[in-house]
Amino acid sequence: MSKKEKIVEKQNLKIQDMYSFNASYLRVYQFELNQKKEKTLESLKSTLNKEGLKAKEAELDGINKAKLAKKAEQLEKKVEKKKQKFENKNTINSRRIWEIDFIRGLVIIGMLIDHFFFDFLGIFTKSNFINLPEFYLNIGQFAQLYWVHPVRVTFRFIGLFFLLFLSGISTHFSKNSLKRSAFVIGAGFIISAAFVVVAVVTSAYDDLVIMGAVACIGVCMLIYSLYKMAFYRFKKVYKWLTLGIALAILISWIFISYDAATDKSNFLFYYNGYARSIEIVRYKNVGQNLGGILLGTKYFGSDWMGLFPNLGYFFLGGFVGETVYKNRKSLLGKYNEKFNRSTLAVVVPGRYSLWFYLLHQLIYIIIIGGLALLMGAQINF
Question: What is the pLDDT of residue 223?
Answer without folding.
Answer: 96
